[in-house]
Specification:
By secondary structure, this protein is an alpha+beta fold. The protein folds into 4 domains: about 210 residues, alpha-galactosidase from lactobacil brevis (Beta-galactosidase, Chain A, domain 5, Distorted Sandwich), CATH 2.70.98.60; about 240 residues, TIM Barrel; about 80 residues, no CATH class; about 100 residues, Golgi alpha-mannosidase II (Immunoglobulin-like, Sandwich). It contains 14 helices and 36 strands.
């Protein structure tokens, strides 16, 4: 698609049509992509309008670089990295609304009049997710995303020649002054136009992200199975003995990493010993930022001893840290008030990483967690809304671009950690899934989907998240045991003594769709439950995990909804790029009809496939054409699942080779 830009400079709106293009260059990058740069000038400003076309992909990436080559400052108050004109037609617009615990709520509307999608909370997915899609009969699907973790905007404006689509930074309370000689790189915008449907666009974005965007990590090459302490113990019941016992059970059950979540730091005398559970008034929460203080009442041997114990069991060790946040009673706030973000002279609750000194301090903290505490995995959380961000003027930014510079600083911090410690896994979390975007996907290894994790809720969030992300970077827990009752998690303990085995299998297989993790009291699980979990962990590690890591994901059904609506069957087919193998996950949800015919996608229609159950069962053969026409599932109980491995045994191509 043709790309241009739109800006508001010194109070005047202008587009690429108003600027003079001086030259255009194209270069072939080492990754095979073609990067085209159009240079525009006007007065004392110079703009590089950059677009990148990727090989074997419909994805186009666009951004702006604005330079002040004049002698006087200029102020930008709107920066759209993408401007394009859509031909007239009847379009359907799709997006996802999002709040804490209610991520990836689908919305579809006919595109009529002016429509604006925007977030102004300061976190990219708090309000709605930074993704959209347009569909039109005979035209296909255009999916797009703003690769930015702060405030963003997408506008659809009708005009005489069709709809004008613009996307980039939200202009809400944004202003950036460029002094003479200064420059600014605007957030990147990603688009993919495919002749097919939403699923085809999702496959394109997922393959592109995996090949060109996501950072590498050797440990994640095998997609490890993880245990996290949070839900069954929170910050109240976790201690050294509990963590060690769960680490030992994790190793015995075939898991590969254990993560110590919040509650590990703070003063022993400030521990929340009243057993009331987590709140924003507990000591550690008020002292976030004092990451050097270990709660020695709970962890008398220190954190390094936990890491060493995990390592002795053959496990990786992870630790939680809300590196951007600063609690009201944090020592760092008293010692270094110059690090803090302020908004209208009031503390905003976080470090401004637009301040190079604060960014240097933050790197030192993360380095200490890795070097001194032995962390192989950093769970990086962020539980507040920075809104418009910091507006103090002694951090190197102005009053209107503090949030912009904070995220530039955060990206640089993550890149620095990865460069020095490439073996460390960086997990992106923000009140669950309130900061899921392609900006952070380019700097972290996994995206935590949501705090609640009931199975239908997980299926809803996974279906939505994989419109934007490859399943290999989607990370969630199997429906957790909770320390206290939460309405959002529906049941304090979903594991019942008399529950049928197929119901537990259904819960686990739903999360086997992505990166697999548990938040259970592992030593206390009933023996039958622990044994069944071991079977599924082994299946994931030996069979299905490599499909999650490498295959193209096709959604064969509509999206389930946590409220009881949506599609009450869910099916996901993972097809290897060479079409030689596939794995099919099928789920019958509560309220699902007795029988469902699933039309498989992405297979070789000329091939014959063997269908088998990885955990045992009968096999059969079908042609790719038969499977594409439909595979019938019937007689499955509600809250049950099926898992099929498809292996190509012949095709027209190899039959010709044999002859």
């Amino acid at each position: 698609m043709q790309t241009g830009f739109q800006l508001t400079l010194d109070g005047h709106i202008s587009t690429d049509a108003h600027w003079k293009m001086q030259n255009q260059t194209a270069l072939r990058r080492p990754d095979g992509a073609t990067e085209t740069t159009k240079v525009f000038t006007s007065g004392g400003l110079e703009i590089d309008c950059v677009s990148v076309a990727y090989p074997e992909s419909p994805v186009v990436e666009a951004w702006l670089e604005v330079r002040n080559v004049g002698k006087t400052p200029t102020e930008l108050t709107r920066v759209d990295s993408l401007r394009s004109i859509l031909a007239p037609g009847n379009y359907q617009l799709h997006w996802f609304d999002s709040t804490a615990g209610v991520e990836f709520t689908p919305v579809s509307r006919p595109l009529e009049g002016t429509k604006v999608l925007e977030v102004t909370s300061g976190r990219s997915s708090n309000g709605m997710h930074p993704w959209f899609a347009l569909t039109r009969e005979g035209w296909g699907t255009l999916a797009g995303a703003v690769a930015w973790s702060g405030n963003w905007i997408v506008r659809f404006t009708p005009g005489a020649s069709g709809y004008e689509l613009t996307a980039g930074l939200s202009d809400w309370e944004f202003a950036k002054t460029l002094p003479a000689g200064a420059s600014m790189e605007a957030p990147h915008v990603i688009t993919a136009h495919v002749p097919g449907d939403l699923d085809d666009a999702a496959v394109a974005l997922g393959r592109w992200g995996k090949r060109f965007l996501y950072p590498a990590n050797e440990f994640l090459g095998t997609l490890p199975v993880v245990w996290n302490h949070w839900w069954p113990y929170e910050d109240v019941d976790i201690n050294e003995q509990v963590f060690r016992a769960n680490a030992e059970r994790s190793a015995a059950m075939g898991l590969q990493a254990v993560v110590l979540d919040a509650g590990w730091f703070g003063d022993p005398e400030g521990s929340n010993d009243d057993k009331s559970g987590w709140s924003e008034n507990v000591d550690w929460y008020l002292k976030r930022g004092d990451w050097h203080r270990v709660n020695t009442l709970r962890f008398p041997s220190g954190i390094r001893a936990l890491a060493d114990h995990a390592h002795s069991l053959g496990l990786r060790f992870g630790i939680w840290c809300e590196i951007e946040a600063v609690g009201k009673k944090a020592e760092v706030a008293l010692r270094h008030p110059e690090y803090l973000a302020l908004n209208k002279d009031e503390p905003a609750g976080y470090l401004c990483l637009g301040n190079p000194e604060a960014a240097e301090w933050a790197f030192g903290v993360l380095e200490a967690l890795i070097r001194d505490y032995g962390a192989d995995w950093l769970k990086l959380d962020f539980n507040l809304n920075p809104r418009a961000g910091c507006n103090r003027t002694d951090h190197g930014h102005g009053t209107g671009d503090g949030l912009f510079e904070h995220y530039r600083g955060y990206y640089a911090l993550l890149a620095r950690v990865r460069a020095k410690y490439p073996q460390v896994v960086l997990e992106n979390c923000s009140s669950g899934g309130l900061r899921i975007d392609l900006g952070l996907a380019g700097h972290t290894h996994l995206a935590f989907l949501s705090d609640p994790d009931p199975t239908v809720h997980h299926l809803q969030t996974f279906w939505g998240a994989t419109q934007l992300l490859h399943p290999s970077v989607c990370y969630h827990f199997v429906w957790s045991q909770n320390r206290v009752s939460y309405k959002s998690n529906l049941d304090k303990d979903p594991i019942k003594p008399d529950m049928p085995a197929h119901q537990l299998t259904y819960m686990v297989r739903a999360v086997m769709l992505g990166a697999l993790a548990f938040s259970y009291r592992l030593p206390d699980l009933p023996p039958w439950c622990a044994k069944l979990l071991e079977v599924h962990v082994r299946t994931y590690r030996e069979v299905t995990g490599r499909f999650v890591r490498d295959a193209n994901l096709h959604r064969l059904t509509g999206q389930a909804l946590r409220t009881g609506g949506g599609d009450r069957w869910n099916a996901f087919l993972y097809v290897m790029p060479n079409q030689s193998e596939a794995v099919l996950f099928v789920f019958r949800l509560p309220g699902g009809e007795e029988t469902r015919v699933l039309k498989l996608k992405g297979l070789d229609p000329t091939a014959r496939y063997r269908l088998s159950h990885p955990e045992g069962g009968a096999t059969e053969e079908r042609s790719g054409a038969e499977l594409t026409a439909g595979l019938t599932f019937t007689g499955m109980p509600e809250q049950s699942s099926d898992l099929l491995l498809l292996t190509r045994i012949s095709s027209e191509t190899n039959q010709k080779e044999l002859r």
